[in-house]
Amino acid sequence: MTANSRRKALKSRLASGEIVVAPGVFDMISVRLADTMKFDCLYMTGFGTVASYLGEPDAGLATYTDMLNRVSAFCATAETPLVCDADTGYGGLLNVAHTIRGYERAGAAGIQLEDQEFPKKCGHTPGRRVIPLEDMVKKIKVASEAREDEDFQIIARTDARTTLGLDEALRRGEAYAKAGADVIFIESPESEAELEKIGKSFDLPLLVNIVEGGRTPQLTPAELQRLGFSLAIYPSAGFLSIARALEKAYGRIKALQGTTGLEAEMMPFKAMCELMGFQAVWDFDKAHAD
């Protein structure tokens, strides 16, 4: 499937009325595994990608070059449409245009831009501050103009809810929709009533961010669809699960207990080899053996 066809497929699914669920991917193993499961969309999480790639917090430390490297690698591997986090666009309006073109040419199906001040902070964490509404509107307009493929989805995120309240977040979402955003993302609603109000406020597809232990209620995809959401992302589910599994396995090794008894909780080594593409290596070696 080409990048253009992936974008068309995602755009069509978001308009279908049935909710799309997207797991967070953050490294090449998670991308390969999620891609085999035939999701309609994958989400390149900023938190997880920065953590796995740089070993740093998602606090504006990753550069455009860092993230484009990951976008390119992920999109080259996955057949599934990928929505990719681009923080604040990595600078001013010229930087936003450059970011849009870079992510699009790397193969992303969509890009997420947020209205935080630089350096940004991870969603669902304290201390997030937003830029003036008018400045973000300009970013969305530039993003819309810069894309070469009209099916490339521009997701406009506002972090205004936590510090300025839901009404301001809704006002910003409406302004971003008028500026050319394809999907609206009101970050960190704090109750089912707030989710319902968001769902009734827009005609565009809506994204909801499900963070285990975060501010937003843990509703089922069916419930989120009923409230009006088109895309539910689960950015942290993968890396939180892996971190706990590693903690358990490494702890047993450190305690001189070995890993006997953990095999049932692990992917079989043969299956991991298959996932990572070793069969092609073995076939190549066989075909070119002396």
UniProtKB/TrEMBL annotation:
Keywords from UniProt, A to Z, are: Lyase
Instruction: Cite the InterPro entries for this sequence.
Output: ICL/PEPM, Pyrv/PenolPyrv_kinase-like_dom, Pyrv_kinase-like_dom_sf
SUPFAM superfamilies recorded for this chain? Phosphoenolpyruvate/pyruvate domain
What one GO molecular function would you report for this record? 2,3-dimethylmalate lyase activity
Does the record carry Metal-binding as a key word? no
Entry keyword annotation includes Amino-acid biosynthesis: no
* EC annotation from Swiss-Prot or TrEMBL: 4.1.3.32
Name assigned to this protein: 2,3-dimethylmalate lyase
Lineage of producing organism? Bacteria, Pseudomonadati, Pseudomonadota, Betaproteobacteria, Burkholderiales
Give the gene name: Dml
